[in-house]
Records
---
Amino acid sequence: MEIPSKYEPNRIEEHWYDYWMKNRFFHSKPDDREPYTIVIPPPNVTGVLHMGHMLNNTIQDVLIRKARLQGKNACWVPGMDHASIATEAKVVDKLKQKGISKSDLTREEFLKHAWAWTDEYGGVILEQLKKLGCSCDWERTKFTMDDDMSASVIKVFVDLYEKGLIYRGFRMVNWDPEAKTTLSDEEVNYEERQGLLYHLAYGIEGSDEKVTIATTRPETILGDTAICINPNDERYIHLRGKKAIVPICGRVIPIIEDEYVDIEFGTGCLKVTPAHDENDKNLGDKHNLEVVDIFNADASLNSYGLHYKGKDRFAVRKEIAKELDEKGHLVKTEQHINKVGTSERTKAVIEPRLSDQWFLKMENLAKPALDAVLNTGDIKLFPKKFENTYRHWMENIRDWNISRQLWWGQQIPAFYYGEGKDDFVVAESPEKALEKARSKSQDPNLGFEDLNQDSDVLDTWFSSWLWPISVFGGIMEPNNEEVNYYYPTNDLVTGPDILFFWVARMIIAGYEFKGERPYENVYLTGLVRDKQRRKMSKSLGNSPDALKLIENYGADAVRVGLLLSSAAGNDLMFDEALCQQGKNFANKIWNAFRLIKGWETAKIEQPEAAKIGLEWYAAKFDRTLAEIEDHYSKYRISDALMAIYKLVWDDFCSWLLEIVKPSYQKPIDEGTLAKVIYLFEQNLKLLHPFMPFLTEEIWQHIANRTTEEALCVATWPKMGKSDATLISDFDFATEIVSGIRNIRKEKNIPNKEVLELFELNPEDKPDRMDALIVKLGNISGIKSTDIAMDGTLSFRVKSNEYFIPIAGAIDVKAEIEKINEELAYTKGFLKSVQKKLSNERFVSNAPQQVVDIERKKAADAEAKIETLEKSLVSLG
């Protein structure tokens, strides 16, 4: 096979990916090997590859490829999440562009459009992951809306309902007016925003008196049904039992008393709007207040909004403030910072809204999941710092609102058959529902036409919390061969932003439905940020095109660039220069390979330097392998890569190849070349999880391989016992070589010129390294001496001093002239510093730190002068 002069990733990446796929190296089925299983955090079906996906999936691929090389039955299950809110919004928007409104369609018609959209756009991201080199078992690809996955969700809902853990309740919920659905508490982001505090005057019925109340939302006065005062507030004792009049709408409302009101906050009076605030709803229930909902589903005002009917809430805020001012109800406004809840999906400002919803009781379900992480250690979080976040969420867990007012998703399996509040049944199919309804109603004449299924769908997370179980069919067939073999999975790699959304809920589901953990380790990656520490996002325009990066640098280079700066749990400051660094590394490896393949062999004796060099590298490899395994065990993937990077770049390319390289146009002995190639292959195995394409390309060029001998399914290196003394001796030798090279550089002595080396205290140096020093330093030999030598240049390594005679090696006259110039400059510099230090005013008034710096300058100059004067003496 001809070896190209340059490494061209675009030429080879598709070829090797197709090769791996054709030979089904990524496919797994149960056998007698140890399983190693990862389930992908399913990206949204609407998604495209971004930097966060790149980081997360590269880490997963590193782990799965290493496990495969270790001989484990590696199974990485890919898939997608149907993303109810995001996908439905996309479909609605596309229909709108065609002049079709969702409200004009039946549920079945809309779902046809949703599936058509999914078939056309869904799965794009999975194809893009292949470009990155992800070695998923694509034959196992799952979608949360697949028939078997949906059946699992419905079965779980019925099971939890029958256990009394799911219930229907009329509650205050988070309402997304853009998506027109409720959200769970975890899907609401809170952010501080600058707004206004409006002080409004309410009239007291039967008098001219007014009471002032402060609010950030003047439009909600139209839903006020009471004013509340603290019974201990002496300022308002006279208002007991009286009634107030709501401005503009004129509604007469009671003045109630409750210690809930903070006397010190605002005016000490609280307007109560039970339909639009959770705390107000609690007060309303306690005091039996009327509930007046002023909003439509899209947060425009309804008929309670009077002349503002049909207008958007924020437009009304401005208009009603103006009207209140004109009618004398607005006392004043002042700047106010308020925490505003926004939808995690649509970014719309959330409205609290009273609604009938389905809830899952979480308190008892959460206990085994809390215990697994914080007490028994069955599940470990990396980094450990996230345990506190996990504890906080799980100890303060609230019931999970699992219903969504959407059509895209698993429809809630509740069937209504009458007008009563409890006239419904929960069942896995209409047939079972009818049977239950007839039994519950004691009406044998009920038919399918009498059943109406709940129109809501389940929260998307209610399907993905089953992911590690359901992808192996473990809900529908709890003891099937696959779930028994692959579950629990080994590692989960995901972002800390979904630690509660997904990670904690999967743990809860694992203990509830399988009686054991869903995985052993959770590796939480950081966020990918730009150089200014900003989170990468489309809106900021600071996120590079992931596929363009792969096109420009190659997948391996991008993977290396991402991982070199990606410590677990810490944010990655992404800089495109990191990809260039990865590309440079790939080129370094490629050029090393070309150098080795270019050597001619002969049946000649192995040089002593090569023998020592090969023994040293084998020892260094074993030590680094132990270090790498330790990093892997602690999920320090970035550190593992850096250890390999240094091993290959510094130890293999810069030292070993230099040691074994034959002289110009001379052959290399067969034994050395065979050992170098073997060690290079060992390097490729360590590199393969990080740089799969490059390493497979080189591996296949090294020798004619059968399919079974592909690097993708090769054997991970076995750890040997590292010779620490050999490594230490080599380090000593390389310091000597560096000393020789520094003198050559400083004195412009050509590398081809052979030098002599004398050593003081030779007993401290390991003699077995002499051949190596002779070759790398290009010296005639190492001789010992008992005294410091004149007419030499010297350097020190530990307690040993080395001397290089310079007669004939340098221009002595020019060197003396150069040293005299430097000596004169240094003496002048020392004089100026000493003058400053002899100035009492300077020493007394300057900060101590500044004085110390000047004293150090003087000491350094004195030491340099001494060295230069010694050099002059040695030059004669």
---
Amino acid sequence: MPVTYDHSYVEDFASGAGVLSPRAWLDDDAARVPLSGEWSFRLSPSLAEAPDDLLDPDVSGWDTIAVPGHWQLSGYGAPAYTNIDYPFPVDPPHVPTANPTGDYVRTVTVPSDWDGRRVILRFEGVDSRFAVFVNGESIGWSSGSRLPSEFDLTELVAPGNEAKIAVRVHQWSAGSYVEDQDMWWLSGIFREVNLLGLNPQAPTDVFVHATYVDGTGTLKVDSDVPGTVVVEELGLEFPTGFETPVPSVEPWSAESPRLYDAVLRTGGGDVRLRIGFRTIAIVDGVLTVNGNRVLFNGVNRHEFHPDRGRALTEQDMLDDVLIMKRAGINAVRTSHYPPHPHFLDLCDQYGLYVVDECDLETHGFGYEPQPPKLPNPVMDPRFEADLVERMRRMVERDKNHPSIVLWSLGNECGMGENLKSMYAFTHDRDPSRPVHYERDTHAEFVDVYSQMYTSLEKVTEIGEDPTSYRGLPFILCEYGHAMGNGPGGLSDYRALFDKYPRCQGGFIWEFIDHGLRTTKDGREIYAYGGDFGEEIHDGNFVCDGLLFPDRTPSPGMHEYIKVIEPLVIAGDTTGITITNRYEVLDTSHLTFRIVTEVGGERVGSGTLAVPAIAPGQTVTVELPPAATADVQPETWVTVTAELTESTPWAEAGHRVAWGQLRLDHPTGARHIAGTASSASASAAVAGAAATSSLPAEAVVGGEARHARSDAGEDVSAGANGIDVGSLGVRNLRLDVWRAPIDNDVIPGVSNAWLEAGLHRVQHRVVSAGLVDGAWEVVTRTAPPALQWGLVATWRWTHAQDGSVVLDLSVEPDGQYPAALPRLGITFELPKVSQVEWFGTGPGEAYVDTRAAAAVGKYSATVEQLQTPYVRPQENGHRIDTRWAQLDSLRVEAAPDLFGLTVRDWTTADLAKAKHAPDLVAGDTTYVTLDLAQAGIGSNSCGPVLPAQYQLKTAPASLSVKFSVPTD
């Protein structure tokens, strides 16, 4: 037992004292008294100020707090966010004296019918270290925040009597040094607490071994209490400890999560089991499940809720699983700790491959020892026993879940002998599953090779050389950093995963933004690092998910859904080709529907007859005659694959894949079904430009219409009858600035743009007059103090239909920057209520995030066109727009396609906003027509934006037509 009040255990290197051995999570006959609910609570600002009264606490003056929960989200203290740095001095095992300490007290009556039972107090998760006192006795203490701890109270309590339970929780401990995961620092009893009554003759630990090969299986169940295993559906009944052949059985996989109900019967009680037969193997450098190559279309998942932090409900967990399944996600890495065990039950039931990761990260030490740095805990022998025990506790708790296909030692800890000890334990205990650890950069002691944020070039290199890194399967444990507007380039990664069998996909970072819901200045916001006054923080780096904090899908999620969908639907006027990318399913569960549109107007629809397609196979079916009978400009055919019948995770009619064909395309057809885009930001329409965060008001067109430049002088553009002002267009100007996205800001790309003055350009009319039948205005757009600019020639003509045509050409001049954020024209309109457009949609799309964009006709309010990123940034761009109508103004491509962005605030307003409520609509709508815009990428935590998606400074041109429809 620890010393009662000297609190030496807080800085002990051990995992705990007085704690029972770890065991499997079981559905057994144990009696249970849930202790969730209100507990008496007291928070002391430091450990030294915590009263020594927990042997017999008087709680009459205490507050109450909900368990599970975090005290920082219950009005005590404040959350804090860091990604890498420890928010306390790095001096292991010591922690600050100002160590907030929360005391929890709950009185419970032990059921009177528990006579003869073992009474166990079980905690599923407490952050970070805690000690337990029961009826005036010190019971023990435990560490490992995301791991269970059990204490035996049998000798201290009596059936029919009350038991007073006191728990002292410390925010900081020696364990905090190995729990430096990228998340909010939140403390308290955040998972359930239960009082268990165990029959002494009942099993307490069970290990299920179920394999599958070519239609047959084997089953063995080990138990600490002998018994008989019954699988009624299979007609099996056999004793524990013996391997039994199963002649005919259906396998478990993520696509077909077949489970068999079984019961382990003993004289002391039953244990109910859900058994999935599956075999994980590495064959010729490829990880397989049941002999099939697995492609991980995965996500990294922290446990998070915007109001409850990591204290998730079962409904929250089910919501996450259903979102994943409906998105086509087939795998989840439990970054960077074991999840609540109920989540794993759901993964078994609904079908998700799981990489179960140990509660271990030491990022704040860096990856390698560098004098005078202290050694990383993974190389410090004082931490070895705790780290091995953390791995043991995870493996023992979770070993019976068929969904778990990989064990992971932890995250971002560098290299050290302690990791090798963890690996050795894991392989000895469970040789059926491979072991993952990303920072084993030379693949010395892992079974799969893993990297983070690998460039496309490096993935190609690994795919081309099957002998590198011991020939192990290659998995990107993190890629596609989904921070803010992103990630981009996912189609390019998918193409490589499809090309190289060894490259077996990966896991997007990450599933959900960790924005905490709070109020600031009377407005509700999603808070990120620094919003709670932290001295050390990492800003909005905690908001890097495919879902917004309220679990609304972001554009990045829609893009990922398209990229990973299980079918590729392509073709041309000769027929539609459909490739089945499922691992084990054919397509007999799907209904295929076809819609034909001309110029965005539906002209035909129906059901497409498609034979069942086996996994990995491709078929071609003819287009219905009606679809090709009268092909006109902008004739598009959309084929959708939907669920024919409801599944446990989606209703009938749920879309699982789609593809779109353009029948009038000069080359026959256009395929935008999740493959890598061949377009680039520096294609023919790309070029050089400049926009101002405080844009100059240079008007092009309008008799005697004047505008003021940034310098304050009047600039007259002249007219000769070309008056775009009569169309409602005001302050038309060249524009190249965008409100930097996180992928611009964090790597410093936007700093180069700022140095080039792109955010503060000024405008000058060089000349204006009639030239070759057109009113021609030449402008020069340039930043102050620098010797470069953009010379734009604006040629205005009247069309026969009464519209005004603009032919714009731009030439860079002087020592111009190599790349730009955007090139376009911006103008202002009186406040617009509705926007209708024909082009890509319905959501935003950029040059490297366009897989999910379908060509069609769409309508939205200006508000609906905005994407509410937690930290406001460039958003809402619709690439390849043909025409747009903004209330009474119509803008058409003539013939160039343009990118459309419409919002009720300036780019400068967007750039300076910290949270969505900072943006307030006024009486003006700002419209940008882009010739091109730089791509999105993942450079906030990943490789630089590929060259093909950078907007190179070069000559460029655009033709558009402005009109006011009369109908």
---
Amino acid sequence: MNLRDPNKRAVAAVIDEIESGDGREIVCDLATGVGKTYICRALIDYLAEQGVRNVLIVTPGRTIQKKTLSNFDPNHPKFVPGGDFDPVVITAENYARGRVGDALHDPDALKVFIFNVHLLTKPTVKTSRAAHQPDEFIGTALYEHLRDASDLVVIADEHHVYRSEAKKFHEAVRDLNPRALVGLTATPDKADYQVPGRVVFQYSLAEAIADELVKIPVIVYREDGHNDVRTQLADACHLRKVKEETTKVWAEQNGLPVVNPVLFVVCQSIEEATDAADVLSGPGFIEEPGAVLQITSGSKDDALAALAGIEDPDSPVRAVVSVDMLKEGWDVKNISVIVALRKLASETLTEQILGRGLRLPYGKRVGFSMIDTVDIVAHDSYRKLLADKEALLEHVLPKKVSSAEVGAKIAGASAGGLGKPLLPAHGEFTGQGMLNFTGEVPINDGGYGGSTQSAVVMAMAAMEDRLTEAGVEQKQSQTTMKPVAGAPSIVFPSKRLLEKPETYSLEFVSSSSATEKGRSFKHEIEVELRKVALNATRNVDGGVSMVQQNLKSGTATQQSWPLSKVREDLEDRILNLPQLTLTHDEVEHAQRIVKAFLSDAVETDAEDTTPWQEARAQFALTQLEKLVVASFSQKLAKTEYEITTVTVPPPIQPWPGKTMSKMQIVDKVIKGMGYTDWEQSILPVVHFDALSTEVKLANLMDVSAKVEWWLRLEARGETFIQLESGSRYYPDFIALDKDGVYWLVEGKSNSEAGSESVLAKKAAAEVWAKEVTDLGQFGTWKYLFATEAHLGQSSSWDTLLTVTGARD
């Protein structure tokens, strides 16, 4: 049947345990999306080969039951091929009909019963059950017929549903007294792990991710405080639309069938589901006829039929809104975005929801992130999900077993006997070769962790030992360093600057200064959707380590404000400053300032036709207020200068000494240490002096889609601005954005930002940037001065430009 490796091992473990046929109950704990269906079908073939002729598959609901029936239908897309035996499939509807009815009395016919567990439960005073009623054709009740079958084996799909606390379900299954009861589940009941030998196989979601058998979950969130339902749904629709557009192009370029990405929304109640479906069907969301499908316990057959065809390329469905009905057993491959509006009540429910989007559209990873990932929109609960990420991915991992061992087990089974179990009991499971960090693990774009430096050093030493044992040679130390391939050289114009202070009151806030400040708001400000992938990798020794990877941000949706409201709010903000006394003159000054502020920020006077998105409007309020408050002590610079040009970086330079990955930056930077693994740095190795400013700036630039390259400047190199006092100012970075603009970037702590010397450097650099740009021969230069406070308000490069006032 060409089973995947974990499925082979699961089948071997089950065979080993049920070989004696003594009625024992066992459980396979297998991650969602790996293929429990194939394990079920392979077990049936094994049982048939051993002479078993009665197999009962118990399902917990009609959705899973229909899916299971389709697995045995050769004309259905969900059919599982490769079996040697063609069973007679018996359901509650067909057991007394023709060939099916005859097979019940044929001892040689392989019979697979597929029954909903509700059918098997005992009748009560108020309810009757057909399976417990005598049947004229069978000669007894169907339930009794099953219990009397001496070779009956029960396969319990979603085994956790039949836990001991669910008394009726528990009794209905176990009172059949089968030769063996095999439970298959991705979320086993915790009580099963308390029974020695009950869980015979475990394959965690972390392992499935590491082995590339499922998609990579990506937690998507925004940090602007908007976590209402409409915002979450709007962002989810935007993410789905982007995936639809990009995957269509990718599929056509690669000659593969187009897969339509679908949004899956999980709600708390039918009322909440109806409200969500109404929102999605409204303007600004999906807006396609028949594109939103609501599925609840009361859904009609036409809705269920539409659900069954959701993977069809011609299906109009782009969003499925559900309560509890689809939390397990619904196996489709084109769920690409998930929104859980209900509170995630337990770890089990969390993985069941996540599991709906884990299956790979083409059966394997294709190397295109839009297809290989599933986005979970979690604006209000992302912190909890990230904090509980190990529980979410079932981070209890066994040591990997070789394919050779699996082959020996399978071969032994077909020969009539098996040796010892492939895997130890659950209590013996250990995580092999895992690097455990507290807090967030910095990955790729240099997030911040909470581990101590000593822990990192110990982890690195342990990894080196494992690599040495595995025969992996360590790289020899380097002697020289060059810029990364394709990186540009930058001509830096050095210049002398002179400043002259001038103090303002509100009356003297010039219209020109307000106009200049307002130019920063010509364009909308994107609100970022932050993305954190919960990935996993195999270690040298076969164990699994989980990694948290910060991905490039997406774009969030925003509300819009009419320009008339923006104008009114701006005037109210500066008129209500505590430094001012409200007078008629002050009102006129406020109107003048706001008019000047907006004069270059809008393209038309038709206020109602030019709405502003919320982020731009909110930042305009704060920035205009800062302009007015700063006018009391603001310094304006006038300059004299001469220019010297320096080309950086050198084409070759000495290797900068010791290095480590930026992922190992924890609670401080090590002076003299070179940090590597950057995406957009011109140099492969970068040194830092400050974690709270320089490292944060580097991380923002390194993941921004709007920054092409960035360069860390030497602290005492040739790239300086000489002040009129004779001292030299050495900025921290140069960044080159996608528009070809050069940014001179400086980061300062809050305590230093207000010092006289720092302010002098800042003013000098601002004037320098304008004048060297006006010369025309050095391109466009701008200056970005960022404090810890600025960086604390900024989740992206785009936001930082606005917060600092650096944007035109």
